[in-house]
Amino acid sequence: MKLLVCISKSPDTTSKIAFTDGSTKFDENGVQYIVNPYDEWYALVRALELKEAHGGSVTICTVGTAEDDSIIRKALAIGADDAVRIDADPTDAYYTAMQIAEYAKSNAFDIVLTGKETINYNGSQVGGMLAEALDMPFVSLASKLDVNGTTATVECEIVGGLQVSEVTLPAVISCAKGMAEQRIPNMRGIMAARTKPLTVVAAAEIQSLTTFVNYDLPPAKAACKMIDPENMDELVSLLHNEAKVI
Questions:
Q1: Contact 46, 78 (CB under 8 A)
Q2: Domain 2-215 coded CATH 3.40.50.620
Q3: Which of 65, 81, 159, 170 is the most exposed place for a label (fewest CB within 10 A)?
């Protein structure tokens, strides 16, 4: 079984977020990047579990520049067999998906796994676009994935219950919480990752469909108001007139 796992880099959740050039670009100064958690914890680890159960190989793929190689090596340390970096600066979800599709078309993967979204853009777009470009069935937000021969059984959480689907492979699956348990790279994996193949592929001639006009930070949190527990009238008044339901 050949598995392809799409990974992306994301700012560490403790990073201070700021923008430059009139709020049109993300300020990367001082930002520590990590593998997008949905890609690493769920998509990659489930791919490794499937490989361990059925045999085969796990390839990771990202669209990025040489600055992303350290992130790719971390994913290799978790257990992937090899990696492909499509040498381009990803400009939007469509561009990213089409670049991965161009690579995947010529490599006959049985399953393509993505995280359900990236934690920096929360778009949930790449998986669906990739499936369309590859003419494969697509299941989004999967929390469980089992394979029997050429059939995959996929479980997704829906409002009020669970939805179980069967798809014929090859297929694209986006992975959500519950798909697998996080794995921490051990020293042996870290050392092995240094020599695992990392192939750089030239980007295809694809035009982005969108551009970023500007970024805005969310409003700053208001100061916390402390209410005397004996002053219920003030508390009720504030809840009616000032509290916001999110």
A1: no
A2: yes
A3: 159
Both tokens of 104, joined, read: 């995947």
For the chain, helix, strand, coil in percent to 5 are 30, 30, 45
N- to C-terminal Cα separation, the chain: 44
Give the tens place of pLDDT for each residue, 8-32: 999 998 888 888 888 888 888 888 8
User: In degrees rounded to 5, what are phi and psi of residue 71?
Assistant: -65, -40
- Paired tokens of 68: 């992303």
One-character DSSP codes across 121-146: T----HHHHHHHHHT--EEEEEEEEE
pLDDT digits (tens, 9 = 90+) for 210-228: 888 888 888 887 778 888 8
Task: Please give the single-letter amino acid code of residue 124.
Answer: S
Amino acid (1-letter code) at residue 39:
D
